[in-house]
Amino acid sequence: MISKLPEPIIDKEKPFKNCKLDRQQYADILTKVVSLNHGCVFAIDGEWGSGKTTFVKMWKQSLVNQHFHVLYFNVWEHDFITDPIIGLISQFRDMAEGDDAKVKFAKIAAAAGKVTTGMLPSIVKGLTKKYLGEDVVEVIESATQKIADSFDKVIDDFVEQCQSMEEFRKALENLVEFIAQDGKPLIFIIDELDRCNPRFAVKVLERVKHLFSVPNIVFILSIDKTQLCHSICGYYGSDNLNAEEYLKRFIDIEYKLPEPDVDKFTAYLYEVYGFDDFFASKSRCKYFREGDEKEEFLKMAHILFGHMHLNLRQMEKICAHIRLVLLTFRENQYVNPSIILFLMFFRSTDNDFYSQIVRKSMSIQELLNHIEETLPRNIFIENEYSRYTVFRRIVWETARLLVSYNLDMNEHQKEELIEKIENNDSSKDTFKLLLSTRVIPLKSLQEAIIWYCQNSYRNDRVLPLDYITQHIELLAPFS
Q1: What is the mean pLDDT of residues 424-451?
Q2: So what's the pLDDT on residue 96?
């Protein structure tokens, strides 16, 4: 059994062949956008764990197949460099084919050495060997020696610095013009910028804006905008800084990567982690009806993953852990897939609350209050379309969790949840719920709790919470 998803294989002929999120449509849109631009900074915004890196790598191959010149640079892997300019210009090296291109590239390297005033020659030489090659080491070293002689000064000559920057941009422009002779812009993808240390992230933005902003280069920044804004605030030491406005200085066009299709990705996780090896095994089908547990799992995942907007990594980690949990159940033991998912959701997104559930440090009313506060209000609202889908399932699973929480390992109740009402019709017992609700329709929750309290002997009975959490925490032996 795998414990994490394998990296998707990017087919060179059909880059999005193995995309489980149907994102080629977005790549086609972006390709059209960048083909219309001949010099801009384009940001693709998506939360951490939303699959941005996989998307841009697939898109990169798609662009290459359409004869674009494409560079890809994962800056997070190189944020130990004193100045990102070395890493950025190193990406052009493989495109500098032929003597003419190499000469143009060497001029860029030399100009970079003049611009990078904050490096000692030994540092520059070491980085140059690693990123640019031996053939331009001496060019860089000689260019930076004069600057290093006055290293203690911030800037010896402001005019000379401006001239150096202009010299760099001109050299870069000449190389790009030489490479991109087919009318298509050169695409430079910068990935994982939001994961860099704040100083380096800001430095990358500044270098791109002030040095690499030349015709025929379209920069693609793959970012989590929210996290990058935090980095900017951290760099400047102020939470009052309007980081979004600051970013607008560097980014010309923004594109929000649409959220993934939750049902498609959940079905993929279900398949790749082999849930049917447990739920649909021949030995298990002797005790439980085939398909019921799968349906319960996927429907609850649709509610929690979709309505709570979990990212791909959160979904993956939850499913990977649940697959381990199932190994602690015997083939004839009943499993509450929905309740396990419910608890794993809280364990992943609100661990303090989950810990209180495990310790049973809350009253049932407090547990219910927190669930109503945490889950979006709209899933608890009954309407003709959701009566037998989202609304009914989430209300009934909430009821089952409350009843489960109320049982000890001997299935004795701790609190009275319902109270019998005396009436004149002795043939039918009537009960009322001893809990109050803020969002969930009281009548619907009451119906569910009464049913679970009176039908615990069925196959969809309620398991004591302690029993379930022992399995979730992998404290039960593997079967």
Answers
A1: 85
A2: 67
